[in-house]
Write a sequence for this structure.
């Protein structure tokens, strides 16, 4: 039997969104809704990389600080970061001060530029991997999938870092490639509707 969080409107939602005050808004208005903007996609993937080994609450609480620190995840600006930027970021108490992750997302900004040169956009690359709905299992039953493993392997071959299959799967959930809201969650229908209207990038 699925357990739900009952929101302030007395409607059921995914149980996890009751875990912290700012989860509800994120769950209701962002998580699972399809995204095709390259900068937003890059931000989501970077934040999932920072989340590795930590709680999502930690990352969401610090998201505004991350945005300010990383030029709102403008990968064209981040690609030019130097060692001085790294040291500045390591002294910023408002973000996760992990040298490996900081250096990884700067590296990934450079790799993002290369991927756009190859594919036209990040959105085109990621959405090309959208799985057949018939292959998607019960919501929130996996931590990785064949699709996330394939994307992870492809990105790693292209030089990306901190993009393992579990990190990529969390990214796919967040950017709407799969609708992982549980059956009965009031937002699941809204995400389904958004996905039906969404024009996949070519």
């Amino acid at each position: 039997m699925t357990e739900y969080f009952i929101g302030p409107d007395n409607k059921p939602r995914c149980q996890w969104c009751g875990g912290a005050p700012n989860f509800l808004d994120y769950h209701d208005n962002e998580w699972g809704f399809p995204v095709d903007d390259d900068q937003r996609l890059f931000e989501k993937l970077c934040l999932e990389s920072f989340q590795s080994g930590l709680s999502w609450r930690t990352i969401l609480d610090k998201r505004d600080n991350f945005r300010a620190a990383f030029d709102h995840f403008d990968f064209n600006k981040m690609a030019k970061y130097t060692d001085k930027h790294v040291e500045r970021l390591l002294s910023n108490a408002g973000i996760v001060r992990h040298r490996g992750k900081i250096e990884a997302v700067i590296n990934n900004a450079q790799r993002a530029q290369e991927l756009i040169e190859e594919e036209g956009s990040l959105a085109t690359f990621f959405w090309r991997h959208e799985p057949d709905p018939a292959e998607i299992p019960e919501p929130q039953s996996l931590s990785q999938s064949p699709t996330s493993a394939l994307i992870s392997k492809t990105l790693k071959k292209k030089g990306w870092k901190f993009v393992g299959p579990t990190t990529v799967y969390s990214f796919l959930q967040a950017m709407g490639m799969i609708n992982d809201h549980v059956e009965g969650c009031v937002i699941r229908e809204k995400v389904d509707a958004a996905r039906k209207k969404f024009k996949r990038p070519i």
Observations:
- The chain has one domain: 36-177.
- Strands lie at 4-6, 12-14.
- The mean pLDDT is 96.
